[in-house]
Amino acid sequence: LIFASDDIKSQLPEEAKKFAKTDVNYKKIMEQVTKNPNVLYCCVKSEAGRLNELKNIFSELEKCQKSLTSYLESKRMSFPRFYFISDEDLLQILGSSDPRSISPHLMKLFDNCKSLQFTKNDKVIAGMSSDESESYEFETPSKTEGAVEEWMTRVDVEMKKTLHVIAKKAVFYYAKEDRIEWIKGEKEKQLGMIALLGTQIW
Q1: Between 142 and 11, the higher pLDDT residue
Q2: In this structure, are residues 137 and 125 in contact, taking their beta carbons and an 8 Å threshold?
Q3: Where is it chiefly localized (predicted)?
Q4: What DSSP state is assigned to residue 5?
């Protein structure tokens, strides 16, 4: 499943081929074992070189693992927040062509970001929601085009940019409105942390 991803295949073509060949060899051995499930026969009396065959499979898988580890590191270098999740989680994200596959991992990647607001057949992210069900729309919707680390970087930038704009408006209206009305946000809905920030600034 790992090397079935188009992105991984394109980035690690040799390793993908190597893994596919190793997988075939391993399945062949398992088929032979199924026909005669006797440990002594399978390990000693069966085809000569079984031990070497298993050692070769292990060696090839180790090489694939090292290449895969380097590949994951390159993804994390491109989008450092991927350091917050495990290799297994990252592979699950990279191995899927569905942008929504990022959703179960958002709380690990971003503080209190529970979900992203997908629109237009999941090709655009229009905003985000917190664990307290507070939400806001991005100033500029972000497209889910290119590699996942590329569009997640754009989402990260847009989150900061939009929160900056919201905070700026909150501070501006604080001096012009009644404090209670400002918190309720009749003109501009206030997020909890933005309300606290605006109060601290003033």
Answers
A1: 142
A2: no
A3: cytoplasm
A4: S
Q: Report the C-alpha gap between 72 and 62 in whole angstroms.
A: 15
Would you state the pLDDT for residue 191?
65
Distance CA 144, CA 152 (A): 8
| 112 contacts 126 by C-beta, under 8 angstroms | no
Q: Residue 89 to residues 13, 138, 140, 158, 199: CA-CA distances in angstroms?
A: 22, 26, 28, 24, 39
The helix/strand/coil state of 86 is coil
- For the record, the structure tokens of 125 come out as 């992210």
How far apart (Å, rounded) are the C-alpha atoms in residues 198 and 192? 10
Architecture category of domain 99-201 in CATH:
Alpha-Beta Barrel (3.20)
For residue 11, what pLDDT band results from cuts at 50, 70 and 90?
confident
| Interior angle at CA 157, CA 151 and CA 161, nearest 5 | 140
Rounded to whole angstroms, how far apart are CA atoms 169 and 165?
A: 6
Whole-prediction pTM: 0.76
Q: Which two tokens stand for residue 114?
A: 């529970």
Q: Tell me if 126 sits within 8 A of 96, measured CB to CB.
A: no
